[in-house]
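Aim 2, interim progress: modelling of the flavin-adenine dinucleotide-bound target.
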Amino acid sequence: MQSPTEHKLLGIRNLTESTYILEVGRKGMSFEPGQHILMGRSDSIHKREYSIYSGNNNENLELLIKEIEDGMVSKSLKKLSVGDSLEIEGPLGFFGLDKKAVEQKKKFLFVASGTGIAPFHSMVKSIPGLDYTLLHGVRYSSEAYEKETYDSEKYVLCTTGDEDGDFHGRVTDYIQQHKFDKDTICYFCGNFNMIKDAMDLLSKKGFSSEQLHAEVYF
Ligand SMILES: Cc1cc2nc3c(=O)[nH]c(=O)nc-3n(C[C@H](O)[C@H](O)[C@H](O)COP(=O)(O)OP(=O)(O)OC[C@H]3O[C@@H](n4cnc5c(N)ncnc54)[C@H](O)[C@@H]3O)c2cc1C
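Predicted structure of the complex, ligand included:
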């Protein structure tokens, strides 16, 4: 296990009242898009996993974080000031795209709930020319975090709380109502229930377990 390293906070961008992006010094860390880090304040022993949001060609690291009600770490990170120190371990995990499949220009389906869009943002930023469809499930369209990053023809905002997205309903409703090429490789990230339901639906549509990859946040 690598020992933790100290990184300086370079900036905080608030995207909504509860969701923000931390920009952190990278210190030469190399990572594969889709990987995560363990991160906490240097003045605390508590750390949590956060997917790397930035591309692997960006100078700094970015993390997309939602403040959880009564959450210990997600709330405390937001209170940091520029110049404060963070402790980071990683990169960790294997939630990356198969390199061969990328080279072969395979089709990818990315399914995210909430901040589960973070690893897909990193993949899209890091790998030009990806053939993907990204389904982003949120309650309100205001949670379409930096949607201008994605090709509008490849990004589907699924909203349940208003009708201002591209599709009114859950990502699972979208999957149920649409067809996907049989050789598509599917990646899911976010809450467990969404991932389980989405994987069940795609299995019923004939997708094999080798085509389904998941990163569960909670
Ligand atoms: C591999 C991995 C990558 C992750 N990447 C991200 C990321 O990029 N951005 C991000 O915001 N979070 C991410 N998470 C979740 C993150 O690690 C923390 O669980 C989250 O920030 C809450 O920590 P906390 O200390 O504030 O809450 P705690 O004090 O630990 O309380 C956690 C409570 O909140 C619930 N919870 C955790 N996450 C959420 C959520 N998103 N929505 C609603 N309830 C939740 C838990 O089930 C638990 O009941 C990731 C988790 C994993 C396992």
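The radius of gyration is 17 Å. The CA atoms of residues 175 and 188 lie 12 Å apart.
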